[in-house]
């Protein structure tokens, strides 16, 4: 486990988390102006986007200089890898909750925690598709609809806008569950499992 953490830049990830949490506490209320489909701008609070960066750092830690070798590793390595990503996501969630508990109501804490889980799932999908160092692609892509189309014609936040819907919004928690299931499936779909599935599919034809 220690050798895995060293090879996967755990210290750098921890420093990144510390910087993000400090920014969350100090500047979380600052408004970010994104392009907006209506008049004005989206003016999204910085703290609503902090979970995206925390998720990308956690999942990006799966990458190393030996990615190609690790993709063919045995089950023992896979157990360590899964344990580390679960531990990393749990640590990011704990840091986020601890920081926000002092400055935000519980509904906001739940909103941010939900966002973290959704972006972790998307980061896992990105990492499996393009490599762990590119785990930021899908999470970053979601910023456009979440900021540009966040308001419907009646001036209400859209049901899928997990960065602005209340922390108790069940549809958004459904998105969180779906994203984690998809990300977990992508994590399990290693190249050798995919090749075995494709061979079995060709034989069945």
Would you give an account of this structure?
With 205 residues, the protein is mostly helical. The chain is built from ten helices and two strands, in the order ααββαααααααα. It has helices at 2-7, 10-27, 50-60, 67-70, 75-100, 106-130, 137-141, 143-148, 170-188, 191-204; strands at residues 31-32, 44-45. Strands 1-2 form a two-stranded antiparallel sheet. It is globular, with a radius of gyration of 18 Å. The termini are far apart.
Number of strands: 2
Oligomeric state of shown chains: single chain
Radius of gyration: 18 Å
**Estimated share of beta-strand residues:** under 5%
**Nearest-integer average pLDDT:** 86
* Ends distance: 42 Å
User: Biggest sheet: strands, sense, closure?
Assistant: 2 strands, antiparallel
* H/E topology pattern: HHEEHHHHHHHH
What is the general shape?
globular
Structural class designation = mainly alpha
Which parts are unreliable, with pLDDT below 50 for 5 consecutive residues or more? none
Strands of the biggest beta sheet: in what spatial order? 1-2
